[in-house]
Design brief:
By secondary structure, the chain is an alpha/beta fold. It has 15 helices and 18 strands. The strands form 4 sheets. The chain has a 6-stranded mixed sheet with strand order 5-6-7-3-8-9, sandwiched between helices. The N terminus is likely disordered.
Length: about 550
């Protein structure tokens, strides 16, 4: 059932169960200055349900989590939440002097209080009163429900599962890395097991094993979970519903099932959106033609010539015809006015490389070749060749040397030993993780036109599906990191390089664009080398795969 951002707020539960929702949002709206982020958003989450939030960067996912947590108040609307709620923002909630033991101890405080009450109630049984027996029965039921006897073992399992099991419990959190601190905060939530859990990008700083452990741990929580994540594999394994905040024909909507189910439903919804937009555009064209001075709505004649010189009867018939004409014109004008006011927006253009990336410009043979290349302390490449039809994925943990390899292929880094050769005239474009446009006052359109003005037939920026129409003329400094990376990718693609190198291309972009990028890479006819830790992209890669292991490039099985 779709969830609509309607004028009249309607609460739409995310399941058909009869249980009482743990979290309820009713007609939430939130603005920052003149920018409206959320409008009349209503939904409910039942126990045992896990709702994933997806949408464009800046669409309101983190804002919604803060509203649900009570960190911010909505401009209008209200939130119903349990007292036992954990909100894990992207910054850990504890201080630098708190030890691992302190953090886990605080998470277990309620379990220990329940155990202490059970012990006290057991001791009180000696008086033999009905009141003490009732107290003990309640304390025992509470302890069994909370599984307090397993609390310490549970804490150790969680710490081990998140890669913190080998750390000294007395170690202060200020001495931990940023990733370890984030995992410790996540561990405290899982150990505590509150009735409602709100998570903002929980898989940041997690390796594959830790992300898999987290997915399993969340599935075992008895309460409600609402989370925002860019990890599509994680979403696919965890969520029971997805709330899509991106613009749609009917506003935000809920899709039941996994992320895979959501993708299929979104594809169908987009096709329906496009069909409706085309149908309404055609209807607008017909209506405008009808109400024109010589339009069809006015093209009604008497239907017969005047007979027997009966001018009076003929005139009366003409008056009737004119009334019919007037009625048709008014009806057509009324429908035209209504449709012009309520016509659905044109669906946003999807990313496509085939219009711009021409496929190594007709080149043949080897474009780039690396042999026995060594960049000391960073990466060693025994052998690697890039051809016009190459589709290569480079995997490996952060800091392993993937980015160094791309710079080697791009030619802006020379090896200390060995060779990195490029065929004469070959053009190589590299999308880096960090782009230098944060202080640029120029608009994406201006920069794009400057870069492409010498091209014979440049593809219009809006036709690439990388920059939203509303962002075409905004200063680059006002755009997000992900939006600026899109602009740079558009600049690279428009120049039709022989080899396109992409360093973590799905970082800082929405899930929808990440999906579109993966599909576009699958059909792009040029040479493409991608370095990525994105599990979804890795599991669905269509070409060859290599990995950087201990600073050395090694081949792996093709995906």
């Amino acid at each position: 059932m779709p969830l609509r951002a309607a004028r009249r707020p309607v609460v739409i539960p995310l399941s058909s169960s009869a249980s009482t929702p743990v979290l309820r949002a009713t007609a939430l709206s939130r603005s920052y200055g003149d920018r409206r982020v959320l409008t009349d958003l209503s939904f409910a989450v039942d126990p045992g349900h896990r709702l994933g939030l997806v949408g464009e960067n800046g669409i309101g996912k983190s804002t919604l989590l803060r509203l649900l947590a009570g960190v911010e108040e909505p401009d209008t609307g209200e939130v119903g939440r349990p007292a036992d709620l954990a909100y894990l923002a992207q910054e850990p909630p504890f201080g630098a002097d708190d030890t691992i033991d302190d953090v886990i101890g605080a998470a277990l405080s309620e379990d220990r209080a329940i155990a202490a009450e059970l012990e006290s109630a057991a001791a009180a049984l000696a008086d033999g009163t009905a009141e003490s027996a009732t107290r003990y029965d309640l304390a025992l039921a509470h302890a069994e429900s909370a599984e307090v006897w397993d609390a310490d073992a549970r804490a150790q399992r969680v710490l081990a599962g998140l890669g913190l099991g080998g750390l000294d419990p007395s170690r202060r959190s200020g001495s931990l890395s940023g990733g370890q601190r984030s995992r410790l905060a996540l561990a405290a939530v899982l150990v505590r097991r509150p009735r409602a859990v709100l998570l903002d990008e929980p898989t940041n700083h997690l390796d594959d094993d830790a992300a898999d452990f987290l997915a399993g741990a969340l599935a075992e929580l008895p309460g409600a979970v609402v989370l925002a994540s860019h990890d599509r594999v994680f979403l696919d394994e965890v969520v029971t519903e997805i709330l899509d905040l991106d613009p749609g024909v009917d506003g935000p909507r809920v899709t039941g099932g996994s992320y895979t189910d959501f993708r299929a439903a979104k594809r169908i919804a987009r096709e329906q959106w496009e069909q409706r937009w085309l149908a309404e555009r055609e209807e607008l064209s017909v209506l405008r033609a009808s109400v024109a001075p010589d339009g069809k709505a006015r093209q009604v004649v008497h239907g017969r010539p005047m007979q027997d010189r009966n001018t009076m009867a003929y005139g009366r018939h003409g008056d009737i015809v004119q009334q019919q004409v007037g009625r048709r014109v008014r009806n057509a004008q009324r429908r035209l006015t209504e449709l012009e006011r309520e016509q659905v927006r044109k669906p946003p253009r999807e990313l496509r490389f085939t219009a711009a990336l021409t496929g190594a410009n007709g080149r043949e043979g080897t474009l780039v070749s690396v042999r026995d290349a060594v960049v000391p302390g960073r990466v060693t490449v025994p052998a690697l060749d890039v051809h016009p039809d190459t589709a290569l994925l480079v995997t490996g943990p952060n800091g392993s040397g993937k980015s160094t390899l791309l710079h080697l292929l791009a030619g802006d880094l020379e090896p200390s030993t060995g060779t990195a050769w490029r065929a004469k005239g070959v053009t190589v474009a590299l999308l880096e993780q960090d782009v230098e446009l944060a202080e640029d006052d120029r608009s994406p359109r201006a920069v794009y036109e400057l870069v492409t003005e010498r091209l014979a037939d440049p593809v219009p920026l809006q036709d690439l599906g990388l920059v939203a129409p509303r962002d075409l003329d905004r200063p680059l400094r006002e755009l997000s990191v992900g939006q600026r990376r899109r602009v740079v990718l558009a600049l690279l693609v428009a120049q039709t390089p022989d080899v396109l190198l992409l360093d973590e291309p799905t970082n800082h972009i929405s899930l929808a664009l990440a999906d579109e990028l993966g599909d576009a890479l699958r059909t792009a006819p040029g040479a493409v080398v991608v370095a990525s830790h994105d599990r979804w992209l890795r599991r669905r890669w269509h070409g060859a795969t290599v990995a950087v292991v201990d600073g050395r490039l090694v081949p792996t099985l093709s995906a």
